[in-house]
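Researcher: Good morning. I'm working through a list of sequences from a screen, and I'd like to move beyond sequence-only analysis. For each chain I'm collecting a predicted structure so we can compare shapes side by side. This is the next one on the list. No need for commentary yet; just the structure.
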Amino acid sequence: MVAVAALLFGINGTVSKVVLESGLSSVELTQARSIGAALGFALIVALTAPSNLRVTRRELPFLIAFGVTGVAFVQWFYFLSIHRLPVGIALLIEYLAPLLVALWARYVLHEDVRRRIWAALVLALVGLSLIVELWSEGGSSLDSLGVAAALAACLCYAVYILTAERGVRRRDPISLSAYGFAFSALFWLIVQPIWTFPVETLDDDVSLLGNLSSRTAPVWLLVAFVILVGTMATFGLVVSALRHVSATRVGIVAMLEPVAAAAVAWAWLGESLGTTQLVGGAIVLAGIVLAQTAR
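Model: Good morning. Structure tokens for this chain:
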């Protein structure tokens, strides 16, 4: 489930880049995906198991924290970080989250985290460093506010994985996702009122860029892909996976996303993949395989 979600996230990154070329801002796209996913998840639960939409007062604070911190803030801080940092650096910092999850599992929850998991984390982080070519980004001149935002995104991503793992013990993954995105949508509605959303942009056609630059697609169709495939399918799979595997393992396997994103960008946008990046991708995959052998 997590591997499929990571691959879909990788495709969604390129699709989102095409959407952003249409004139929609990062905040507007994030707002659209939050509202769309909230409505979609709620509709699924209402049609299949409406009783699962019930929520107690005791559960409400947890769901609000999950939606705002674990869903809305991850995206918000990530966009803030890539505004001030190279995308590769921001992504690498955010993917320190699995290490935080492993540390939390070992020293707070006192779970038995095998040595292979720690080795897998090291391999995955080394591989990610090679993929984004960390040394070529001018690490000594990194913007301090950008680094702070990326670290905040990392922390929120770790919170998302851990709170989702706890949440699926109480309710099903779909209703948990429905409430998570509902409170995320409410947060974005406060940040940016819905009447300011440029609805007219959705009717425009936009070039698919790169190797598909001669072809166009309506913005509304691409946004629908981001909501249905890049958000509902991906987040639903990750939350569902937490019923079967630990948060630490989910975090490590999710590191497939940068590898998938690089491969999709190479095939679609024509972005080159150097030898170092290919080696980095192989190291990440080796780390994930190693983590899967730790029972």
